[in-house]
Specification:
With about 60 residues, this protein is of the alpha+beta class. The chain has one domain: Alpha-Beta Plaits. It contains 2 helices and 4 strands, in the order βαββαβ. The strands form 2 sheets. Strands 1-4 form a two-stranded antiparallel ribbon. It has a two-stranded antiparallel sheet with strand order 2-3. β2 and β3 form a beta hairpin.
Length: about 60
Amino acid sequence: MPIPRIDRARCQGHGRCALLAPDVFDVDDSGHSVLLVDDVPPDMLADVEEAVSTCPERALSLSQ
């Protein structure tokens, strides 16, 4: 399963990832992204891929 990653130095807290894939991403008290899972289940992959591809700061990625 793909592993989501967040580059916290790049994250500016837009929150798009939490809107697009709320079962995988959330935001902390400062508004920056945090992960809710270690691996992306297959049924959530399309939402996570969209979150990764539309992150304005390119702070998200997926690895195998």
